[in-house]
């Protein structure tokens, strides 16, 4: 370890190029000189792949804590805005949103102010489903019957990982075992996978004809929108609720309760059903989930399943708006993965759910899930109101593209020696460039 430190830059690159060392091993062979390893790897990539990385920053970063990425060559800064305050379960939160979509954060400020949201996790359990193969159906059925016997359910995992239930599904000579376990404040997929591996080793000793095809048989289901996750849940199952007075709908949202409810039926329920969506009975839940996942260090690939949401809007007897968002598969954690990175930890601190809850493990991750679901509700209301009033495109032009639009128009006209004060019918032609 560290034996490369006595070599100059060019000598190390020669060793990488001739295959004597692998660039993925640079950190260890440089004695954990992380910044030098990143610098060398960048130079190797630029010279061998003919790419330019000058606009990809790498300085001023603590690579010693990066355990969630390999072959590091830098980092991608993403703008982080905030919206709020949002009152969730009686507490006000400023919502961090890492996004590159214009008019996204701005739309929240008007919507969030004054809204009180009740948000609750009503089920919690991370799943992993290995697939096993047997030579005959009788061998598969023997294990199925054994696993489903109550006396064989006494299987212990780890300190923060507790098995809740096990579903055994048979197809031909294959068994899919869907383990469901609580995992404290961790998102828990790796934790459950380790526990499942221990169980499989134990089962292999008892059922010698069993072949483990994979620790994941896609019956979990991870990083894919699926009916089983929507029906049975995965991660946190959360529901959020808010009552918005009709006076607020009229004065702030500039629409009516009846218009919102009619659009919710036509767009969220009927339109989504006609398109055959799975878990997509919402306006844009993925926008909020993705922005908060990036800000708080969650697994971005799980947005595809975590954003499954059913948004409901109904009119109360008093004419007010009753709104709920049901999310059955919110896969979040406040420890592990990207949550260890300082910027992401800072965003978790904003939400008062950084790290593990020592008094009651699991409470911080539940709080994060409840806040995300509440923010989704606010985002749904914001977009639906904008659609009712035809403000969606106007806001995007105002907050996202308007300045660029004017700059480009002036630039184009200067090239063809036209005065910008004579903009007329040709303006539309220039806008097509955008």
Automatic annotation (TrEMBL):
<keyword id="KW-0521">NADP</keyword>
<comment type="pathway">
    <text>Metabolic intermediate biosynthesis; (R)-mevalonate biosynthesis; (R)-mevalonate from acetyl-CoA: step 3/3.</text>
</comment>
<dbReference type="GO" id="GO:0005778">
    <property type="term" value="C:peroxisomal membrane"/>
</dbReference>
<dbReference type="InterPro" id="IPR023074">
    <property type="entry name" value="HMG_CoA_Rdtase_cat_sf"/>
</dbReference>
<dbReference type="GO" id="GO:0004420">
    <property type="term" value="F:hydroxymethylglutaryl-CoA reductase (NADPH) activity"/>
</dbReference>
<dbReference type="InterPro" id="IPR004554">
    <property type="entry name" value="HMG_CoA_Rdtase_eu_arc"/>
</dbReference>
<dbReference type="Pfam" id="PF00368">
    <property type="entry name" value="HMG-CoA_red"/>
</dbReference>
<keyword id="KW-0560">Oxidoreductase</keyword>
<dbReference type="InterPro" id="IPR002202">
    <property type="entry name" value="HMG_CoA_Rdtase"/>
</dbReference>
<comment type="similarity">
    <text>Belongs to the HMG-CoA reductase family.</text>
</comment>
<dbReference type="InterPro" id="IPR023076">
    <property type="entry name" value="HMG_CoA_Rdtase_CS"/>
</dbReference>
<protein>
    <recommendedName>
        <fullName>3-hydroxy-3-methylglutaryl-coenzyme A reductase</fullName>
        <ecNumber>1.1.1.34</ecNumber>
    </recommendedName>
</protein>
<dbReference type="InterPro" id="IPR009023">
    <property type="entry name" value="HMG_CoA_Rdtase_NAD(P)-bd_sf"/>
</dbReference>
<dbReference type="InterPro" id="IPR023282">
    <property type="entry name" value="HMG_CoA_Rdtase_N"/>
</dbReference>
<dbReference type="GO" id="GO:0016126">
    <property type="term" value="P:sterol biosynthetic process"/>
</dbReference>
<dbReference type="GO" id="GO:0008299">
    <property type="term" value="P:isoprenoid biosynthetic process"/>
</dbReference>
<dbReference type="GO" id="GO:0005789">
    <property type="term" value="C:endoplasmic reticulum membrane"/>
</dbReference>
<dbReference type="InterPro" id="IPR009029">
    <property type="entry name" value="HMG_CoA_Rdtase_sub-bd_dom_sf"/>
</dbReference>
<dbReference type="GO" id="GO:0015936">
    <property type="term" value="P:coenzyme A metabolic process"/>
</dbReference>
């Amino acid at each position: 370890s560290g034996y490369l430190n006595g070599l100059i830059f060019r000598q190390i690159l020669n060793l990488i190029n001739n295959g004597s060392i692998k660039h993925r091993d640079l950190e260890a062979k440089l004695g954990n000189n992380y910044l030098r390893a990143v610098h060398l790897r960048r130079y190797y990539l630029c010279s061998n792949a003919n790419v330019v990385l000058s606009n990809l920053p790498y300085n001023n970063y603590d690579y010693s804590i990066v355990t969630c990425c390999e072959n590091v060559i830098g980092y991608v800064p993403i703008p982080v805005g905030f919206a709020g305050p949002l009152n969730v379960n009686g507490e006000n939160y400023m919502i961090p949103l890492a996004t590159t979509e214009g008019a996204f954060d701005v739309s929240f400020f008007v919507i969030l102010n004054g809204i009180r949201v009740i948000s609750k996790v009503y089920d919690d359990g991370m799943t992993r489903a290995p697939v096993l193969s047997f030579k005959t159906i009788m061998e598969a059925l023997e294990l199925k019957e054994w696993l489903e016997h109550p006396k064989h359910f006494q299987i212990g995992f780890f300190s923060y990982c507790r098995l809740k239930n096990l579903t055994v599904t048979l197809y031909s000579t294959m068994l899919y075992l869907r383990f469901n376990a609580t995992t404290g404040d961790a998102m828990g997929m790796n934790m459950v996978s380790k526990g499942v591996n221990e169980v499989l080793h134990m089962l292999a000793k008892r059922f010698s004809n069993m072949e483990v095809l994979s620790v994941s048989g896609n019956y979990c289901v991870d990083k894919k929108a699926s009916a089983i996750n929507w029906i049975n849940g995965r991660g946190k199952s959360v529901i959020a609720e808010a009552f918005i007075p009709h006076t607020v709908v009229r004065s702030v949202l500039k629409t009516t309760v009846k218009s919102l409810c009619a659009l919710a039926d036509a767009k969220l329920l009927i339109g989504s059903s006609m398109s055959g969506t799975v878990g997509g009975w919402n306006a844009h839940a993925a926008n909020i989930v993705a922005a908060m996942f990036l800000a708080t260090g969650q697994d971005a690939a799980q947005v595809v399943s975590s954003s499954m949401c059913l948004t409901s809007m109904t009119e109360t007897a008093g004419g007010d708006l009753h709104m709920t968002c049901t999310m059955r598969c919110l896969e979040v954690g406040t420890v592990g993965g990207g949550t260890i990175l300082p910027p992401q930890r800072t965003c978790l601190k904003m939400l008062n759910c950084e790290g593990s809850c020592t008094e009651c493990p699991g409470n911080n991750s539940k709080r994060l899930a409840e806040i995300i679901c509440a923010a989704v509700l606010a985002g749904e209301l914001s977009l639906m109101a904008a659609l009712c009033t035809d403000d969606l495109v106007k806001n995007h032009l105002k907050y996202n593209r308007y300045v660029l639009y004017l700059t480009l128009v002036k630039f184009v006209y200067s090239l063809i020696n036209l005065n910008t004060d004579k903009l007329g019918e040709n303006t539309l032609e220039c806008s097509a460039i955008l």
